[in-house]
């Protein structure tokens, strides 16, 4: 069994909630739908009472109606039929209202979960995959919704059981007492399944999250796998996680299925008990034939709902496990940003003073790194892979916080700035430009909220005249997920146009030309000359073309900046490879 459960440990942000805590959270969610749920409760109660009237009416007919009294018999039959039809109509209305309420709850819960996922910083996603988050926002919220729907059904069944008990006790107390003895037995069976079902469900949900992660990674890296002929590796990895999920789902199905045969045995015992004791009571004259019929019929209204409640308990554990996973994501603390300062819309002075940073404890990436950029200056930061260049960019864009030293913008610690304001004032271009599915125009307009089509077109043309004509439909060209459908270089130009529209006073390029060909790089650098005007720029680069756009070049090595700081002319004279060698 341990092999099956490999990789199914709780995620780093999972929390352990008590049932009481979970129920309190669930009730708070349902408060928003209390109007609909009150109507649901009203129809539940009414349909239950009408449903109970049917067997009671039949029993009265058997007791009081003579065979030759056809009008009275016909009237009772008609009344029972109408009562059954009305009960069915009320149940239909109740189900419609229940689905509407649950749809509203799921929408609210998914929005809360998505908001929590967006709120997290880059460090959260270092240990959490996209597939795991997607599974919680989609699959677990749906499982939770199904369980709440089942809960309402269980409440209906509970009301029905209570109504049947009241009716039976009013007819014949000794026989009703025998039927009532079934309740603790059924509750005991349900309790035995509780912990087993909860644990199995949590493991199954984690396995499903692993499937989502595997699919997401496989599709995202499919082009790379194909280029190396390694599609079979992806298939084997997926087959392994799928096999784990399959085994756990079969195991979960066995748990849920095993409760029904046990409850079926209890139902059989109840029928035999009522048939035997009721028959003896009729012979002894304690009850009449109509009342005995009422007890036999009432078993359907008592035992079946009671077994349904017991079976529901294991399904309820599935819902609690799903709710626990969703609430763990929602409750995971987001980074606290207390800064409230605004940045001026002018070129900024940037100072990094003895900055230290480590992704993992004891593994410093930056160790006493210092660098100053004056307003309007462009500095190229070079160094070998893993030296910490991209880390500097992430610190400057607010994705991470320095663990030592200070990062100042215009003499103010970066922590004092409002983080949303900071990111609006820092334009960031990575070597992997990200475009959302839609049109090129849509992606350019992301640069500034509320930007008009005309402003986006003006920014695109100001960037590099004529480049949009190379697109199939100009700015109206549709792109797929992550910008599929246009070249990497064109995606970079879209990102630059977006930044031109954003008009940030600070620009950070993180190996932006690393993956494009020389011709596309030439176009990109021409566009870059337009974008960097009047801005403080930090270019992380290896290529000489990008370095040539800088006024100074600083080499990062061993987590520290080298003392050697070269102006552009001297940098151009050095072979590009020399920048990667330690001095």
UniProtKB/TrEMBL annotation:
<dbReference type="GO" id="GO:0015421">
    <property type="term" value="F:ABC-type oligopeptide transporter activity"/>
</dbReference>
<dbReference type="InterPro" id="IPR003439">
    <property type="entry name" value="ABC_transporter-like_ATP-bd"/>
</dbReference>
<dbReference type="GO" id="GO:0016887">
    <property type="term" value="F:ATP hydrolysis activity"/>
</dbReference>
<dbReference type="Pfam" id="PF00005">
    <property type="entry name" value="ABC_tran"/>
</dbReference>
<dbReference type="InterPro" id="IPR003593">
    <property type="entry name" value="AAA+_ATPase"/>
</dbReference>
<dbReference type="InterPro" id="IPR017871">
    <property type="entry name" value="ABC_transporter-like_CS"/>
</dbReference>
<feature type="transmembrane region" description="Helical">
    <location>
        <begin position="36"/>
        <end position="58"/>
    </location>
</feature>
<feature type="transmembrane region" description="Helical">
    <location>
        <begin position="144"/>
        <end position="169"/>
    </location>
</feature>
<feature type="transmembrane region" description="Helical">
    <location>
        <begin position="175"/>
        <end position="196"/>
    </location>
</feature>
<feature type="transmembrane region" description="Helical">
    <location>
        <begin position="70"/>
        <end position="90"/>
    </location>
</feature>
<dbReference type="InterPro" id="IPR039421">
    <property type="entry name" value="Type_1_exporter"/>
</dbReference>
<feature type="domain" description="ABC transmembrane type-1">
    <location>
        <begin position="44"/>
        <end position="318"/>
    </location>
</feature>
<dbReference type="GO" id="GO:0005524">
    <property type="term" value="F:ATP binding"/>
</dbReference>
<feature type="transmembrane region" description="Helical">
    <location>
        <begin position="291"/>
        <end position="313"/>
    </location>
</feature>
<keyword id="KW-0813">Transport</keyword>
<dbReference type="GO" id="GO:0005886">
    <property type="term" value="C:plasma membrane"/>
</dbReference>
<feature type="transmembrane region" description="Helical">
    <location>
        <begin position="259"/>
        <end position="279"/>
    </location>
</feature>
<keyword id="KW-1133">Transmembrane helix</keyword>
<feature type="domain" description="ABC transporter">
    <location>
        <begin position="350"/>
        <end position="583"/>
    </location>
</feature>
<protein>
    <submittedName>
        <fullName>ABC transporter</fullName>
    </submittedName>
</protein>
<dbReference type="InterPro" id="IPR011527">
    <property type="entry name" value="ABC1_TM_dom"/>
</dbReference>
<keyword id="KW-0472">Membrane</keyword>
<keyword id="KW-0067">ATP-binding</keyword>
<dbReference type="Pfam" id="PF00664">
    <property type="entry name" value="ABC_membrane"/>
</dbReference>
<keyword id="KW-0547">Nucleotide-binding</keyword>
<dbReference type="InterPro" id="IPR027417">
    <property type="entry name" value="P-loop_NTPase"/>
</dbReference>
<keyword id="KW-1003">Cell membrane</keyword>
<dbReference type="InterPro" id="IPR036640">
    <property type="entry name" value="ABC1_TM_sf"/>
</dbReference>
<keyword id="KW-0812">Transmembrane</keyword>
